[in-house]
Amino acid sequence: MINVNIDGKEVQIVEETTVLKAAELAGVWIPTMCHSDLIEPYGVCRLCSVEMIRGKRSRIVTACNYPLRNSGITILTNTPKIQGIRKIIMEFMLSRWPNVPVVKDMAKSLGVTASRFLSHEVDEAVDACILCGACVNICKDVVKANVLGFANRGIKREVILPYDEKNEKCIVCGACAYVCPTGHIKVKTLEHERGAKQDWYLGPKTAINIPTLQAVPRVPKIEEVSCIKMQTGGCGICSTVCEPGAINYELKDEEIEFEVGQILVTTGYKLFDVAKAPQFGYGRLDNVYTSLEFEHMLNSTGPTGGTVACKDGSEPRAVAILHCIGSRDENFHKYCSRVCCMYALKFAHLVKDRTKAEVYQFYIDMRAFGKGYEEFYKRLLDEGVNMIRGKVAEVTEGPRRNGEKPYLLVNCEDTLIGKFRNIAVDMVILCPAFEPQTDASEIKKILSINQSPDKFYLERHPKLDPVSTMTDGIFIAGASQGPKDIPDSVAQASAAAARILSLISVGEVAIDPIKAEIQPEYCSGCKICNNLCPYNAISFLDEKKISEINDMLCKGCGTCVAACPSSAITGKGFSDKQILTELEGLLTI
Amino acid sequence: MSDEKKTNGWDPKIAAFLCNWCTYTGADLAGVSRLKSSPCVRIIRVMCTGRVDPSFILQAFKKGADGVFIGGCHIGDCHYAEGNFKTLRRIEFLKSFLEKFGIDPKRLRLEWISASEGDKYAETTMSFEKQIRELGPLELMN
User: Fold this and answer.
1) Which residue of B has its CA nearest to A585?
2) Nearest residue of B to residue A460 by CA position?
3) pTM above 0.80, yes or no
């Protein structure tokens, strides 16, 4: 610990403390323009100049970056000499940036009202860049993205991105805009630019958030894409403020291997990307939502607190619900997504319940297939929901006179009355098709299961074995097998679980006797069969130089039998001899 | 002679190798749906069309078949993942030199018929029978 005297006040400080920090402890104000606690002292504005006296020597130093190392130093912060320096600096700044509030305020507090100097580079802007360097330093030291930098020298000095172009290294964290004292840096958000919109999220998403208020466990999580620490290794502010030390940046997705006897595939579905059908205006027109976004809006913990509201906050006068977006459509998916009719009816009911809006349902066919569903449909008809049988052709912005509230026009053919109709609404809800997951085909290959032509997983038999697959021990349930609602998914998953348990309780597995077999004495070790097997059941024995079939993996398709050039492989039940005899018998009749 | 046979109530013999999972079941469906499929087809069930050794086809022609029909699952729909790809390759290859044996490649047909396509099975076998009737009996040079 050392002692220092600042303007007659003695303070005890740790060695290496800067004069500025020491003055803060002593309660002495030193003006600065470029200093921020978030970044290393930069010492570029020179406004914090103070007089330092050690023994008989006196020096002018910048308080922000001058570390105190010995006792016996006296600092004077308000001598006529220092006041003169400060005034000159402020006059210089005023001459160049006459309208910037932070410069004007500082000048005023130091007793400077006008500048005696004339600048060749006057910037009249209120939010002019005063070259304090805070943005450059925060980008370099804290964010560690190192995107911003100074270019040129003297009066041409300016802050730019490399080559003055949009830079991909910039992670758009906004730290530079946050520290900028004049508001010169602005972060633009291009909300509707394609891809920028989150899957189903209507509100802003911060780097640390609790996904939903119903989340289990209800703890915050870090968004990897927007966390500065994870993107650049900088920042880390949250770990310094978290007292229990709960933040762990290393905790990431990892692969863990398990050895199991049976697998239940319940990979679910994804929603059709409605932007692929641009006629419905999603992403282009305001107040066009997908069903999941609308569901989020209905949620009492959602962005609107459960209120059905247009983007401007007003209550919609009319709401259109469009069925079959991407399903039952020759251009996208031919199948019916099954659940949309019923949730669309639920939406209509909730909109009626919460607002005074008219509700229009645009449907191809109403499929109220389940227990109590038809009754619900009847009830909605009584509630006065407008049912229009017809697929919507287009959603457009409605023409309007001056000052009229914007609205949307839903264009469709009402096939029940045989007329084209244009219906004005304030909000459009699209019911997108169920789709198999994007990586469904990869999972299919890994597990050697099959997909039906619509790319949902194929069951062994549609009626008699709807939960197992052609690969023994692998079962499917839920929307990965085909579009279905929650009751159906639960039923199928329960059935699959029961099948799995029955195999576990038996303790042994009965396998089909139809297998291929290699007679080792005939196998020439040509390896032709090795790559043919879709189940990887054939392996090559290096020491014996022959191939071998794993009985447990072989499904008995016979592809290898037909390919073996030395007829070393026989298919049990389907041997060459059996088939040829059968053939002969058939053809002699 | 062949003309005489055609007029004298000659019925072609068609050997069919049908995959257990798709076309064989499809043929069953055609039956229970009371659809008229070709009576000349003599079916041999195999687990997968991948089991059909090209030599079986040549044997069938040798033993007196006038046409050979192979029915499997649709491409990408094979119960054994990719057995039908191998068949497709083998059959195309075999067709390329059937003519050298004096066999019209039209006498060999490969079709993808799923278990639910009973009507397709009925139509395809009928049209194949018609085609074989037009080609007449197969006369192989010994």
Assistant:
1) B63
2) B79
3) no
